Amino acid sequence: MKAYTTKEKIQHLLISNAVPIIFILMSAIAIPLSGFSPTYLVQEMLIRLARNSFLVLSLIIPILAGMGLNFGMVLGAMAGQVGLILVSDWAVVGIRGLLLAAMIATPIAIALGYVCGAVLNRAKGREMVTSYILGFFVNGLYQLAVLYAFGKVIPISNSELVLSRGFGIRNAINLAGMRHALDYLVPLKIGNLNVPVGTYLTIGLFCLFIVWFRRTKLGQDMRAIGQDMHVAGAAGIPVEKTRIIAIIISTVLACYGQIIFLQNIGTLNTYNSHDQAGMFAIAALLIGGATVSKATIPNVFLGVILFHMMFVVSPMAGKQLMGQAQIGEYFRVFISYGIIAISLALHAWKRQKDRERARRSLRGEA
Amino acid sequence: MNEKLKGFIEEAGWPRVIIGLFLLSLFVAAPFVQVRVDASISDTLVRFGMNGILVLAMVPMIQSGCGLNFGLPLGIIAGLLGAVTSIQLAFTGMLGFLTALAIAIPLAALFGTAYGLLLNRVKGDEMMIATYVGFSSVAFMCMMWLLLPYTSPTMIWGYGGSGLRTTISVEGYWLHILSDFLSVQVGEYFYIPTGMFIFFGFMCFLMWAFLHTKTGTAMTAVGSNPEFARASGIDVNRMRVVSVVLSTVLASIGIIVYQQSFGFVQLYMGPFYMAFPAVAAILLGGASVHKASMVNVVIGTFLFQGILTMTPSVINSLLQTDMSEVIRIVVSNGMILYALTRKVQVKR
Amino acid sequence: MFNRRNGFRVGLLVVLVLLGAYLFVSGKQHQMFVDNKEIALDGKAYPAEAFVRVAFDGKEPLELASGDRDVTQVVGPAHTVKIEVLNESGDVLKTLDGDFQWVSTPKGMFSVPAFLGGAPSPMVDSPREE
Q1: CB-based contact A77:A255 (threshold 8 Å)
Q2: Residue B165 — left, alpha, or beta (φ > 0 → left; ψ -120 to 50 → alpha)?
Q3: Is it the case that chain C and chain B have 3 or more CB pairs lying under 8 Å apart?
Q4: Could you give the CA distance from residue B109 to residue B112 in angstroms, rounded to a whole number?
């Protein structure tokens, strides 16, 4: 081991955190351009941190197990939505409604997570693209259920939820009874700022769970599998089973994350809410400096803040800069997709180079 | 007999058999629910011609081992740029169509080269990255459509706004320019877009011929066994770039053919999900993630478009509800999922 | 089959189901009509008050003149109510605190006179919704 000089250390720091640094710079330019007041931005960030962190955190465990970004988290989001639809039909409100929704959604999420894990075990090495397509596929089944089974097979009594034709769920469901039920469970107001303490406490608990989980036997097994599946298998770790468990945990947590997300928003878009959940969560995590193979809790919070800062600011900045808010809107879509593309590419490139280096060292320096 | 049937199902794979039977039953059921079979077949044929080349664009990359080209929107964007520029120049008829192609193809080759060079650096992860390259290029072009200095009044927002419209009609420029060439109209409902089929057939032939040239066989060799290909002196990376360029160029041609039949150029988020139907179609036709042929393209496009045409009309009159969208999602993604999870002999 | 592990699982399942049932009952929101009309229950007549102010579960009070009917939302099965009877000039004549149980949707109307008059349950048949 040779000691690194200060310069090398700084260089390493800059390179390994290139993405967050670029985003901090971009925000630094865009915030003054947008003309939003600091109070507004702080309030927005407080809300969005509560709204999105849980969803993003749910991505960490599959990364630990070397399964990459779990695009299949939308499965969990759909399960959560099914729970919320049923609960709003029964008119169970407040925190009890959220808990009941989570209780109903959990078995669905576990079943979907199991399916997802089993499918991904058949597609080792291309988990990401498979989980991505699986998300679309299950979305089709979800629509089938929500559009045709709800109100026909599954009784829905509240006519406000049902389409005028008599079955199928409406496009938007108002969650007024559950809105902010968790956020303001413990009311706290600092100056003009509403602080969603309840959600922060939940997120905090969840972070502790992740820290604890990493140290358990199961967490260690996952890390071993993440490093090398074959070695882990040879060491007697049940690889396939552990991978399925990782995905189940992620799916269930994504389901809770979606419930938290929606109680904060207050409206459930039956047919789109879950679609965006996956994309935004993944983009946020990557912007926070995580990679396909490594993600930490700080990555999550930094990512949520930076991503949503840009999300809030860019339409106004676009308007000031180009005269069209639309440009800013497209810009943020471009950034979300672009950042995922670049992060994935950089990661794959690095892996390829590592492989080549390993091959060369295997052959020996000829 | 039973053995034969079993063998056939094994060969074709369950999803294909089920979907094939499903389509057949739709055609059988059609007359009983007052859906005209001739109109349905005609619709299927038109959609087949429209989408064929986009599906064909999958072949080169599958053959060279780059997997399914979820980055199809990149080529489509080149095609859109060609189409829009040709309308801007106010070229009509065959001239306009050819201008669109002439502008689109070099652009597609350019994009394809860059895209291919990128994919060479990410071997093994092509599909996921391709998806996001496609998505981000569509989002990038959304900004460009607003900013590019096109001025033709048929294309820009009429009232006060600037930038191009979301859909631009090609009527008066090159609407049905290929479709109507030697087209056959039988009765009121039956129509065969002969010109489009000729063009599609020609493209398939070119592709087939290319795969049998020295470069083409080298490309296939790269896909089936890269180590062996390298050992026999083939430049693997170059072959892969060639395949990506071909795929991108075909996508750009494909979208222009699509537009001349459809009648509209769809900008902004229009190309966003266009890769998925094409991917699903070729897989439905019997291709795998590693191997595809012209037969797969033709059968797959026909089956897939057949389902897309038949489900709305037949299922709707049968159940009085519109389930076509859901069926489309389940069928196309189910097909892709099936192909991705098939146990393949992975060479590591 | 029946070992400690399975026993524990079954127990957990039962606890979860019970918790779910509790959440369902205690979290359910009901639409409740509030009525200040004369009403006859079991042959006994309860006259309407001239003007009352009714607050359920410590929330914003509803004000009802004689013959008024209003609608509100209550959550769960058990409720407290605070009724203030007012005179014409708005002075509080008497105040009554008490609690009552939600019965069921057909009996979804809280009758103020019945409650003030000490009827066994203030919940009466709710009017049919148009």
Answers
A1: yes
A2: beta
A3: no
A4: 5
CA distance A192 to A37: 13
What distance in Å separates residue B137's CA from the closest CA in chain A? 8
Q: What secondary structure letter does DSSP report for A176?
A: G
Residues 6 or more apart whose Cβ sits within 8 Å of residue A42: A193
Are A119 and B337 within 8 A, CB to CB? yes
Contact between A232 and A218 under an 8 Å Cβ cutoff? The reply is: no
Neighbors of chain A with 3 or more C-beta pairs under 8 Å: B, C
Which whole number is the average pLDDT over B125-141? 87
Range of the domain at B315: 11-339
Other Cβ atoms within 10 Å of C24 Cβ, number: 16
Among A100, A160, A178, the residue to mutate for chain C (most C Cβ within 10 A): A100
Is residue B348 one of the residues assigned to a domain? no
Cα gap B2→B220, rounded to integer Å: 35
Q: d(Cα B146, Cα A127) in Å, to the nearest integer?
A: 36
Instruction: Please check whether residue A5 lies inside any domain of the structure.
Output: no
Higher-confidence residue of B81 and C95: namely B81
User: Could you tell me if A213 lies within 8 Å of chain C, comparing CB atoms?
Assistant: no
Q: Identify residue A127 by its one-letter amino acid code.
A: E
Tell me the nearest-neighbour CA distance from A339 into chain C, angstroms.
42
Positions in chain A short of pLDDT 70: 1-4, 363-366
> How distant is the Cα of B17 from the closest Cα of chain A, in angstroms?
19
Task: Say yes or no for a CB contact (<8 Å) between C28 and A177.
Answer: no
In total, how many domains does chain B have? Answer: 1
Give domain status of residue B346, yes or no.
no
Q: Do A330 and B118 touch (CB under 8 A)?
A: no
Which residue, chain included where needed, has tokens 């090159």?
Answer: B174
In which domain, by residue range, is A131 found? Answer: 17-346
- Closest-CA distance of chain C to residue A306, Å: 37
Q: Is residue A8 part of a domain?
A: no
pLDDT of residue A77: 92
Put simply, whether the predicted model's pTM sits higher than 0.90 gets the answer: no
C15 touches chain A (CB under 8 A): no
Model confidence pLDDT, tens digit, residues C44-60: 888 887 888 888 887 88
| Per-residue pLDDT tens over the stretch B38-81 | 888 888 888 888 898 999 998 999 888 888 888 889 999 999 99
Greatest mean pLDDT range, A186-190, B30-34, B190-194, B301-305: B301-305
CA distances (Å), C18 to each of A33, A256, C11, C24, C27, in order?
Answer: 55, 20, 11, 10, 14
Map residue C73 onto helix, strand or coil.
strand
Q: CB-based contact (8 Å) between C16 and chain A?
A: yes
Q: Domain coordinates of chain C in residue numbers?
A: 29-124
Please give the CATH topology (third level) of the domain spanning C29-124. Answer: Immunoglobulin-like (2.60.40)
Helix and strand tally (H, E) in chain B? 15, 4
Instruction: With a threshold of 0.90, tell me whether the complex ipTM lies above it.
Output: no
Residue C20 has pLDDT above 70, yes or no: yes
Contact at CB, C23 and A103, closer than 8 angstroms: yes
Note whether C27 contacts A104, CB cutoff 8 Å: no
More confidently predicted of B342 and B214: B214
Distance from CA of A111 to the nearest CA of C (A): 16
Name the β-bridge partners of C62: C54
**Chain B residues 104-133 with a CB less than 8 Å from chain A:** 118, 121-125, 127-129, 131-133
Q: Which of residues 136-195 of A touch C (CB under 8 A)?
A: 177
Q: Which of C16, C19, C29 is closest, CB to CB, to A92?
A: C29
